[in-house]
Each structure stands twice: as C-alpha cells, then as structure tokens.
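Table S4 entry, Pentacotripeptide-repeat region of PRORP domain-containing protein.
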Amino acid sequence: MYRLRRRLTSPPPLLLHTLAAAQGGESFITNSIPPSQIASLISEQKWSHLKPIIESSDPTRFLHQLLHSDEFDTALVLSFFKWSQADFQVTHSTEHYVKLCILLANDKKYPKIRSLLHTFVKRCKLISIPNFCNALLTLGDDSCANSVVFDMLILACVKNGRPELALEGFRRARDYGLKPSLISCNPMLSALCNECRIGDVEFVYKEMVRRKLVPNLITYNTVISGFGKAGKLNKAIDVVENMKINGVSPNVVTYNALITGYCKKGGAGRMYKADMLLKEMVDSGISPNVITYNILIDGFCKDDNVAAGIRLLKEMRARGLTPCVITYNTLINGLCGSGRIEEGIRLRDEMSESGLEPNIGTYTALINGFSKKNLLEEARELFDEIIEKGVVSVNKMVSPNVSTYNCLIGGYYEDGNAEAARKLLEEMEEKGLVPDVVTYNVRINAMCDVGETRKAVRILDEMRKKGVDPSHITYNALIGGYCKQGNPNAALTLRKRMEKEGKRSNVVTYNLLIKGFSEIGKMEEANGFLNEMLEKGSTKAVAGGGGWRGTSSSGGGGATAGTVRRWLGGGGGGVPGETASPGRCGGGLQGMCGGGVGADLGFGG
C-alpha cells in the first residue's frame, strides 16, 4: 500500500508536539495529554471534554496534526473533521478535504469518500478544479487512488446539481493525468441531457472514446436519448451503429429513445418511422414495454391520429401488457381534443373498471373536452365533482390544479362569459394556485378578441413582475390583437419588445404582421416582412388551400406585392403552428404552449 506524502504546501507551526517520541516520548498536547487519550475522546465522541483543549488552540491546526499523524485511525480523523466543522463552524481547506479523501481511499472506504465529497461540493460555493487537482498530485502518490477521488468529485458535482463544475473537471482531468470512469461520466451525460446541452453531451461522448473510456449500454442509451430529444436523429442512429460495432446490443430503452425522437421531431412520415422502429425491435427479439406504447400513442394523438392510438392500445393488450393511467389519459385527452368526448368518457369508465383510478389529469382532459364543445355546464359539473369528492392519487386527495382551472377559464372566455372566468380565476388564486403562462395567455387572448389589446399589454407587464416568462403565443396574441384593430405599428413595438427579451419572430409572428399591414393597404411593408421571413429561413408556413407554401427566397429576387396577395388569397392570414384560440388547451399531451393538460398526463401521478 502506498504512503501519503506527509506535507501540505506550507505546513503551519506545530500546535501539537510530534507523535514520534524521539525525545523520550513527548506527549501529544502541550499540557501533557497522551495521544491515546485524545483517540479515546474522539472515538467515544466526548466532545465536551475535547472542546476545551481545542478552544485553547485552533481546530484547523489540530486537524492538520491528526491528518499527518500515523497514530490515529482514519475513522477517528473523519469523526473529528465532521465535529469540528459543525461545532466550530470551521470551513476546512481544499487541501484538508483532499488529504482526508486520500486516507479514506487508502483504507478503501469509498462510501465515506462519496459522503465527504458530497459535503464538500454542497458547502463550498466556490470550488477551484485546478486547486483540487494540484492538492491531489501534491498529497497523493498513487495515481489510481487519485483518479478514484477525482471521479467521486465529478459525481458529487452532478448529484449536487452542478453539472457545469463536473464538466470542467472532466475537461481538465487529462491535464493532471486523472482518469474519470463511467461511474461519474454516465450521470454527467444524463445531467447534461436534462439541461438540453447536447453540444456538451456530444463533446463528452467523443472525448470518452478518445480517452479509451469504453462506453457501456447506459452511456449509449443516454447519448441516444439526448440526440433524439434534440431532434438530431441521424446522430442518434450513428451512435446505435457504433454500439453494435462495439458489441453492445440495443435494448428496449435504446428503441424507446429513438421512438421518442421521431415522435417529438415532427414533419412528414415521422410517425411512420416511429411505427417501423416498433416493428424492427419486435423482429430483433426485443419486447416493447408499456413505455414504448405510451410514447407511440402520445405521438399518434399529437398527430391527430387517435385511431392509431386505439389500435396500439389493443395491440399492447394482445401482448399481455397492462395499460397504465398514462396510457388511458393520453387517449382520453386525444379523443377529447378532437371533439370525441363521449368516447373519452367511455374510456374513462373502462379505465375505472380495470381497477385504475382516474387522476386529476383524467378529469382535466374531460373538462377540456367539454369546454371545447361548449358544454360548459357539464364541464362545471365535473369540476365541482372534483372539489366535492376529491380525486385520489398516490394515496392522497388531489384538488383541481392550474391546468384544470385553465381549461374551464378558457371555456368561459370563449363563450363570452368573462365574469364567470374572472370569478374562477379569483377562486383559483384563493386556493393558493399560482397562474402559469397558459392562464395569462387565456386572459390576454380574451382581451385581444374584444379589442382591449392595450389592457392586455398590462397583463404582460403583470406576468413579468410575477416572474412568469411570456411565450411566443403570448406575444403573438398581442401582435394579432393590434393588427386586428388596424394598428400594426403598435404590433411592431410589441415585436421589438419580444425580440429584446430573447424571443425571435417565428412564422406566426410574420404571418400576423404581413396580414396586418396588407389589410391597411401597406403592401410594401407587408412585402418586406415576407422577404425577411424567407431570408431567415422560415419556410415552414403553410397557407392552406392552394396558397403559398414555404416559398424559397433563393433565385427569385424576393417576394413581390403580387406574391403577398396570392399568399393572402390562399389563406395565409391564418396562424399556422399555433392554436387558433390560446384560450383552449390544445390537442395531444402538450396542450397550449407545451403545457396545459399535458403537464398532468405525463409520467406524474
């Protein structure tokens, strides 16, 4: 076993006499307390007896002596370390943390190292990776042990929600001859994926390969999932091919990640490709699970193909898989979103008969369905039923949440009953529920619909004050409101504010501005926005009917006033890509603004 270097960068003056009894056995403490007594006090945790001894000197220097003494067991040093930190409110140095970690590594006490480094990362707001690495190289002689300690530091950074620090450690490790392992790299990749930092995920993955750190199934699945969620499906497929070449077989998690990517990507044929992946995995002998079917059902429902979702429900049953609450809620929401409320209710009843309790997401989907069909009395009855009887979810009663209120509030506004919507909003806030971006969008859209856009802008200001980040739908509703009132210049002011706050104009924004300026006869300005949209590559707008479809700006010298007229004549004044009425929760799990009902139909209870 290797020996630790018995020095810090600059040893402090000795508070304690050395334990080496070179001069007839000097005592450990200046007042002649032998080291055995010190050890006994620490092991028996007689801190009240030890405290006066420490107070007469300095706990940090006392710790220094313990760390550099051969007379004390590492467990005793660790006990003193924790006690002195808590009782004296001492912030121990990086060098002391590193020294203690190396001693623990020497004794193969790895769980204690993890715990100690977790405390280090949690307590120390400013951590210098270079200082930590230098301390490791200075105090430790064994490169393998050093790498183990550093690996656990990266893991501690990830677990404490500091992936940026973990990434810095990974980047610098090679400079100090340290080798992180999959134990830290896999969780770091997962954390980076969760923060949608796909560029960093790709860097870490490629760097792992360069450093000859062989990825395992978890590594591959994490990277594939990250690429899939980011829409980089070609890269995800490349990783699948790499894992096969390296002898790692894809499993159900691999296929679920790919299927999720296709379901989220959008575009022609996306669900066909996702469905083909299901067939491929079955042909490969990999059995799909409930999650596989939930992903596909959700994708088909968002694609306005509830029939395909129902087909998959039957297929999963045929395979002996039991649908869960998420499966039913997804289909109920899809049916209600497409106006098939009766079928949604039947599926809710079937769900109950199978022994599954409908949760708040189930009821929210049904309320949304009733609201969309203008059956507000039925929606209110269901809403009141939740309040009176309550909904059991994970052994606790659940009341209507923000999404539930949003659906009913939106229904009242759509029906022109602003007073009922206002009372419901007040009731929601009285219950301690905080309005979200959907709630504000509902209110803003309702005001713009009745020509009160200036008042709606005040709600935008209110959102900002309350820390709610406006979405593109928020701004586009206001821009559309001003354009509808024949005031596109005010709409332009809103657009500038939107872009100043970090949201670029999207296809919907351009559609509204082009239509707004065209309707007041300002075709030159409308033409300018059309050209600007094309130059920025916004070619996904579809006018509908026989109108303009994704005209390219290349080779044509830009759009003309005639092009604008033809586009408007084809129905281009619509708002593709967003719900026509932000007052309603949209179809599919996402609902309005990517939230709404979908927040309750995901993988929560």
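The CA atoms of residues 207 and 369 lie 50 Å apart.
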